Amino acid sequence: MKEPFMMISLLIPGPHAPGKDIYVYLRPLIDELKELWKNGVRTYDASSQQYFQMHAAIMWTINDFPVYGNLSEWSTKGYMACPVCNEETSSLALRSKICYMGHQRYLPSNHPWRKNEQHDGRCEMRPAPKEYSGNDILKQLEQVKDEMPGKSPHNKDRKRKRDASELNWTKKSIFFELEYWLYLKIIHILDIMHVEKNICDNVVGTLLHIEGKTKDTLKAILDLEDLNIRKELHLRHLRYGFSKPPVTNTLTLKERREYCQFL
After folding, report:
1. Does residue 82 belong to any structural domain of this protein?
2. CA–CA distance from 40 to each of 31, 32, 47, 180, 183 (Å)?
3. Do residues 169 and 86 touch, judged by C-beta distance below 8 A?
4. pLDDT recorded at residue 34
5. Are the beta carbons of 244 and 221 closer than 8 angstroms?
6. How many structural domains comprise the chain?
7. Residue 59 pLDDT class (50, 70, 90 cuts)
8. What share of the chain is helix, strand, coil (3-state, %, to 5)?
């Protein structure tokens, strides 16, 4: 593959995507970043018409959530899927998925919503999760087994089981080779385009009750029953079946037309 087209391979979706082998492609980038930080590169300044030694550093990456897991090497799946909450991730297994709870922990300690039990059936008095520093992360990574990148013969067991001490780490991120990476406060940022699209799709799909996109589903109602919350939304059992009560965000036909006209 020619060098100008090397990064195109990172855009291949599906089974041919690099996934956790993305480090094979990141190696040239990391080597250049090391050079830019330590020695710099001779650069011409058009405004002053002089040459100077330019140094550069990467401040953070911007990506969607799955790539967040590939770059940080913290698995974004399972009971500890949140890289920020780390081992303090609040999760709950429902019928067919893992749900992430405890969002009220981020509110001020005296906020009235902390005592609202409609979210998960209990008052939330826990403090926000600990903010992990670079040194904290490196200390955790000391427990993680080394793994060769790419299709190495040493990687025969591609889906090895992690020890409990490894938490959700898969291996040490290649970005820690940059001597300043340890001290950066924010290193990975979620792309707002993906976040905005996902939220808007869910909100619009639920308001207009679009088949396949609404979150007001039978499974969601059964989850509420399992959690024993929002009893006014539980299924109403009838003689020959059951009925699904309307939720507060249900729009009438007239309201849907007005909503579409507004958009």
Report:
1. yes
2. 12, 10, 20, 15, 20
3. no
4. 95
5. yes
6. 2
7. very high
8. 40, 10, 45
